[in-house]
Amino acid sequence: MNKQTYNNRLKNNMHVDELNHLTINGVSTVDIAKKYSTPVNVYDLTLIKDKISAFKDAFRTYESKTQVAYASKAFSSLALFEWLAKEDVSLDVVSGGELFLALKAGFDRERIHFHGNNKSLEELETAITEQIGCIVVDNFHEITMIEHLVNKYNVTIDVLLRVTPGVLAHTHEYISTGQADSKFGFDLASGQVDKAIREIQPIEGIKLIGLHSHIGSQIFEVEGYELVIEKLLKRARDWRDSYGFDLQVLNVGGGFGIRYTEEDTPLPLEDYTIAIMQSVRKHSKQNNLKLPEIWIEPGRSIVGEAGTTLYTIGSQKTIPDIRKYVSIDGGMADNIRPALYQAKYSGVLANKVHDTNEEKVSIAGKACESGDMLIWDITLPEPVPGDILAVFSTGAYGYAMASNYNRLTKPAVVFLENGNDFLAIKRETVEDHLKLENSIKNWK
């Protein structure tokens, strides 16, 4: 494989230095692996900032307000929330834990949106007493709980209705959420949205300001968003006329695709945004509606490509005429996506990117599972124990979905910006696992 082919795998702000080592944002990944050990998740903050700017810049031509809300389920940390709070973005949280972290980070409460299909009474109580920006209501039980809480505390809360529009995005079945058969939201076709609007409108403490729809993830086309917008704005006209519902906010979710391997062909981020704006303008005019605010919720498309995971090569196994397995010191415990979604990744050997003694290998994780395979059939310079494997585009749903399977410890997280590194999350230790344990010797 020639030098250009390896260079094609590299992401923004990645280079190969004079030592043939991979650098990210001016920092040697080999030095990072030595300093923090492996596995270690590395985030390029400059690239994250660039992704946010791409969305915000594309929205500048829109005639009403807009919000870019980072979908924190992709990756969350105290340091990231503190950093994002200065970037003029909103925040989408989906649990009490994410909400607690956002509040701890000093995030502007008015810019926090709370999602989830089974919010507890305690979680909703925190959201309402902290007076966050809005709650995305997912079901009728939730309406009852919110009504109880706003009456209890004599407050008002803004809400959006999550609508399941019956639009199936072209994505993996496990991350497709817009079809009617989904655990999320009020079904459009069966009249559940109409019923929810009728229930909410008379409740004094609940202010229904808009609609939300999310059709899936890792989407490489704009037609699904256009179809959802057309359906919802047509119905919004009917709901205005029938129930007096004034649509102020249309949240079309996220799901914008990124490049994991050379097989992926995502659109430029501004293409999604421009198509959304054009469709909202068109169908607002056709249905005689005021131009609503547009909100989006990118997560993967903001942090996915900014993340790289560094592993150390260990044992190897060659099966003649079949394949060569090369094992690393991580795997499904820190990145479940290949086992869960059959997700594909690419990467390089960070300590010898352009070496020419190549071979095809398969990267195996260290968990005691035959399905713990990170990459099947990748061409690399011949790996030896101690080499550093850099796996690209691991910034979304890697650390966020990490587990302690086999009592493996979660990796450290390091931020990079302007040639500097910052330890955002310390490496977990086996002693950390004991903090919640209780010895049976204490049972009396």
In short:
Helices cover 29% and strands 25% of the residues.
Task: Write up this protein.
- It catalyses: meso-2,6-diaminopimelate + H(+) = L-lysine + CO2.
- Keywords: Amino-acid biosynthesis, Decarboxylase, Lyase, Lysine biosynthesis, Pyridoxal phosphate.
- Pathway: Amino-acid biosynthesis; L-lysine biosynthesis via DAP pathway; L-lysine from DL-2,6-diaminopimelate: step 1/1.
- The structure is a single chain.
- This protein is an alpha/beta fold.
- It folds into 2 domains: 3-37 and 306-435, Lyase, Ornithine Decarboxylase, Chain A, domain 1 (Beta Barrel), CATH 2.40.37.10; 45-300, Alanine racemase (TIM Barrel), CATH 3.20.20.
- It is built from 13 helices and 21 strands.
- The strands form 3 sheets. Strands 4, 14, 15, 16, 17, 18, 19, 20 and 21 form a 9-stranded mixed β-sheet that branches. It has an 8-stranded parallel β-barrel with strand order 5-6-7-8-9-11-12-13, surrounded by 5 helices.
- Helix 10 links the parallel strand 12 (249-251) and strand 13.
- Helix 3 runs parallel beside helix 10 (269-286), helix 6 (121-129) crosses helix 7 (140-153) and helix 9 (223-243) packs parallel to helix 10.
- The chain is globular and about 70 Å long.
- The model is unreliable at 171-178 (pLDDT under 50).
